[in-house]
Each structure stands twice: as structure tokens, then as C-alpha cells.
Amino acid sequence: PIREIAPGAVHLPGWLTFDERRRLVEACRAWAKEPVPMRHTVLPRGGVMSVQTVCLGWHWQPYRYTRTADDVNGRPVAPLPEWLADLGRRAVTDAYGEAGAYDPDTALINFYDGQAKMGMHQDKDEKSDAPVVSLSIGDACLFRFGNTETRGRPYTDVRLDSGDAFVFGGPSRFAYHGVPKVYAGTGDPATGLSSGRLNLTLRVTGLR
Ligand code: MD5
Ligand code: FE
Q1: Which residue has the CA at smallest separation from atom 5 of ligand 1?
Q2: Is residue 76 part of a domain?
């Protein structure tokens, strides 16, 4: 059942069809190689993220968006395909009843192996308050949805499974959130992903 976790934060369990999951896994496999290889992002203070990331449309480097992957190989990132933006519009429509003029220009593709995590953070590098659409494939995870004031409590823990969509908009767009744990071995290898968790987030950068 569709569940509103907080105002504007809508969980759509099992939203992706199996064909869509397979298509996304195959597409991500190609995007993870060229033109910019998927890599562990290095933070400005030297920390290395356990998650691996590749971007479409705009390249995220902490903490800004650029057209070229200056911290990887300097090449322009691949475009965001219209079919993926369409998928994002459908998710927003299913979450809110209408998509308005939702037009994402960026996708961040994160791969989590069984050990990877993401600490509590806010996504504030976009100059737009348009919703973020999150799509999960492969191993399940513990997703921690917090509040807009602090990294800590109160938060709501939600399990995200393969095929789930989550839309973060309105008052939830700038909430703290993180992924404290991946449940290794819970995915469905028939999607083409034998292990790990894939997460795609569609975003509006507000850049042009
Ligand atoms: C993930 N990725 O599962 C998550 C899904 C990231 C990241 O956090 O920054 O790459 S995106 C979840 C998200 C986005 C925007 C707002 C909120 C959650 N929120 O308000 O909770 O790899
Ligand atoms: Fe985030």
C-alpha cells in the first residue's frame, strides 16, 4: 500500500515492474562504465564514500553540480534519457495525484555493496525545491528518514525493497536521511543484479 511517511514523503512499495527493474539494471551497467566510470566519491576533507556513484545530466561532486566529471576523468556526463524522466513523472503522479511540470535534469546512481552505508545528510546542492524521486533495485536496505532540523531523532526507519519508489517533496524535500544498512542477499538476481543495492535518484538541479 502507498504510504505517506511524512508530509510530502510518499513510499510506493513494489512500484517498478520486473521489466523496468531489468531495464534499469542493464542501463546502469552501461552508465557505470562510460563516459564516466562509477567511483567512490572523495569528500573535500579526504573521506571516501563507501557508496559508488555515477551521474547523468549533471555530475555531482561534493558539493556542487558540473557538466563534466572534473574529479574523475574530466569528461561530460551522459545525458538523462527522456524515458527515465518519464518514469520520474509517473512516480510523482502516483505519489501526489499529478506531476505538474516535473522535469528532472539529473540522476545520481548509487551502488551499495553489502557493507556500504550513507550517513545522515540533507540534499541541498540543488537550487530547486522540486521533488526527488528515489528508485531502489536489488538488496533491501534500512532507510532512515529524519527531520529538517537535526541529524538525530526524531526519525522513521523504513525498509526499502527492490522495486520500491519513494518521492520526497514539499516539506520533506530537505529532511535529513541516510542508509544505515543494506540487507545482503535479499535482492532478486532475476533483475540482473546478483548482489548489492542500486538506487537512482531523479532531481531538478535548478541549473541550466
Ligand atoms: C539512497 N540517496 O538510497 C538515497 C536515496 C543521495 C541519497 O540519499 O543523496 O544520493 S535519496 C533520498 C532522499 C533524497 C532527497 C530528500 C530525502 C531523501 N529526504 O528528504 O528524506 O541512495
Ligand atoms: Fe540524499
Answers
A1: 134
A2: yes
**Nearest bound ligand to the CA of residue 140:** 1
Q: Kindly give the distance from the C-alpha atom of residue 17 to the centroid of ligand 2, in angstroms, as a whole number.
A: 24
142 torsion bin: left (phi>0), alpha (psi -120 to 50), beta (else): beta
Q: Residue 46 falls within a domain, yes or no?
A: yes
**ipTM of this model?**
0.98
Whether 145 lines ligand 1, by a CB cut-off of 6 Å, is: yes
Total domains, the chain: 1
Give the pLDDT mean for 78-100.
Answer: 98
Share above pLDDT 90 across residues of the chain, in percent, rounded to a whole number: 100
Is 31 in contact with 78 (CB distance < 8 Å)?
Answer: yes
Instruction: For residue 162, give the CATH number of its domain.
Output: 2.60.120.590
Q: Is residue 208 part of a domain?
A: no
Regarding the beta carbon of 179 and ligand 1, being less than 6 Å apart is answered yes
